[in-house]
Automatic annotation (TrEMBL):
Keywords: DNA-binding, Transcription, Transcription regulation. Gene3D superfamilies: Periplasmic binding protein-like II, Winged helix-like DNA-binding domain superfamily/Winged helix DNA-binding domain. GO terms for molecular function: DNA-binding transcription factor activity; transcription cis-regulatory region binding. PROSITE patterns: HTH_LYSR. PANTHER family: HTH-TYPE TRANSCRIPTIONAL REGULATOR (PTHR30126), TRANSCRIPTIONAL REGULATOR LYSR FAMILY (PTHR30126:SF99). InterPro entries: LysR_HTH_N, LysR_subst-bd, WH-like_DNA-bd_sf, WH_DNA-bd_sf. Residues 2-59 form the HTH lysR-type domain. This is HTH-type transcriptional regulator CynR. SUPFAM superfamilies: Periplasmic binding protein-like II (SSF53850), Winged helix' DNA-binding domain (SSF46785).
């Protein structure tokens, strides 16, 4: 039997990725964390991590032990769910969604928390594939994805249609822009931006658009909350879902250009079969569905 305390310390370390922060999170000293990892390795009979300065990587034995730690956490969580009163305003809920939707949704969730003091909400921005796998594994109770999911272990409810927006500085509001003028202004690129450009521009500039590689990039940023800032300052244009525009504090300095052909993404709320019947998860799913109507 693996020592439960040592296993929890090791699993937390793998989750946090840093000895000092793990110690702070668990109310321990850094040497204490190292001692737990060393004792667990001794119990297993093989090293669990390989250190490289202040960072570390897992050995094959460490990966196996981590899988056990995560499985044990999930079992404990399911046990808590089974014995906890099924109250829609009590308990923990984890949500995974895109960065732009997380920015838009989070303030609404805070309002929900004001009315449910015993409800603990964890929101994680993640890519589509990670959201699906995390809902299946039980890491996320709810996921919000941009395409319908057909999986025997998942429930999926259509959430809303979200417009994909061409976002420019406010000074260009109402102007008719073509690819030449947009390239002159410059693209504020981001990890999803190139795919968004292919999606939106191929519909509206089929003769002139040669693919995202042909765009003149003015700057690149991978922090969702930072993407609209250079646009607001007149330094370029970008393409974002409407939630990313609405969540920006300085959106009065932005303008959305209506192209001849609008592009929408259908958003879906997914959950693992069985968990969607838990009162707090069902109530929050319904809350998100009602709140998201504002994006239409």
């Amino acid at each position: 039997m693996l020592n439960a305390t040592w296993l929890n310390t090791f699993t937390t370390l793998c989750d946090v990725g840093h000895f000092t922060r793990t110690a702070e999170l668990l109310g321990m000293t850094q040497p204490g964390v190292s001692q737990h990892v060393h004792k667990l390795a001794s119990q297993v009979g093989k090293p669990l991590i390989s250190k490289d300065g202040k960072s570390f990587t897992l050995t094959p034995a460490g990966e196996t032990v981590l899988a056990i730690g995560l499985a044990r956490r999930q079992q404990e969580r399911e046990l808590q769910d089974a014995i906890q009163a099924d109250d829609p305003n009590v308990g923990n809920i984890s949500i995974g969604c895109s960065g732009s939707f997380a920015m838009w949704l989070y303030p609404h969730l805070l309002d929900r928390m004001h009315h449910a003091p015993d409800l603990v909400l964890n929101v994680t921005a993640a890519p589509h594939t990670s959201i699906v796998s995390s809902v299946l594994s039980g890491e996320f109770d709810l996921g919000i994805v941009a395409e319908p999911i057909n999986h025997p272990r998942l429930d999926a409810i259509e959430l809303t249609r979200e417009e994909l927006c061409l976002v420019v500085p406010r000074s260009l509001k109402g102007q008719k822009l073509d690819l030449h003028l947009l390239n002159k202004l410059g693209f504020v690129a981001h990890p999803d931006g190139y795919g968004y450009a292919d999606d939106l521009f191929s519909l509206n500039f089929p003769k002139d658009y040669k693919g995202a590689d042909s765009l003149r990039v003015r700057t690149f940023v991978n922090q969702i909350g930072q993407i609209p800032i250079p646009v607001a300052q007149g330094l370029g244009y970008t393409i974002l879902p409407k939630s990313g525009v609405d969540a920006f504090a300085g959106k009065q300095d932005l303008a959305i250009i209506q192209l001849p052909t609008q592009r929408y993404h259908d958003l879906w709320v997914i959950s693992r079969k069985g968990r969607s019947e838990i009162a707090r998860i069902a109530a929050l799913s319904d809350f998100i569905i009602q709140t998201a109507k504002a994006l239409r």
